[in-house]
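Collaborator request log, item 7. Partner lab (contact: R.S.) asked for a structural prediction of Crp/Fnr family transcriptional regulator to inform their binding assays.
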Amino acid sequence: MSSANVIPLKHALFNPQAQVCADCGVRRFALFGVLDHAALDNIHVHIADIKLQPGQSLYAAQAVGSAAYTVREGIVRLERTSERGERRILRLAGRSDMLGLEAMLGQTYAADAVACTEVSVCRVPRTLVDDLSRDRPEILVDLMKRWQRALDDADEWLTELCSGPARHRMLRLLLKLSEFADGGQVWLPARLEMSAMLDMTIETASRLISQLKREGVLDAPDQRHAVIHMDALLKALREDSALS
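Returned to partner:
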């Protein structure tokens, strides 16, 4: 047969989950982004695609961890409840973030992971990471980078959103939420969730949101979504910083 008649075939992935991994929009940012198609075909049986509705739990604090999770779509909150029943939201995670990294050390999960929006995650078992990292040390390096990123996010949340004047904390929260924008809109936490995020009363959170609407910092087409006007938000943050 003449070479002119030979049509090169694209590598085919025969397992649906392997194809999902290959086509995933966050694959190049994910832990296994370095793997080629053949490697994805080999690990597909270990990875599960999980979908959650708002309010559903991904995992619970103190549960024995056997897997970490990569967020493909949506927003997940990490939260803890004190012995007195007080809930604190520690941070938010979105597209390409990895959750439950403590499971890679065989530890229990440190917080509850709960879906804020419709969420799609990939479950990555610890045993799979252990097996792959023997031949691919770059996976362990990537894992450490993700762990550091999670620590940095937690530190930022603690310093920027849990201390200082209430208005400053609310402005910083809106700036953080803008990172999760989808089609020009951001998910807007309920006032109770804002209270648990920012260590303020529900009444204070409601008053500040109403005030920022009047100032043109954001519009809220409904109770769970907002359009943030970035120029106005950054101006408000500069003015707030100048006064403090």
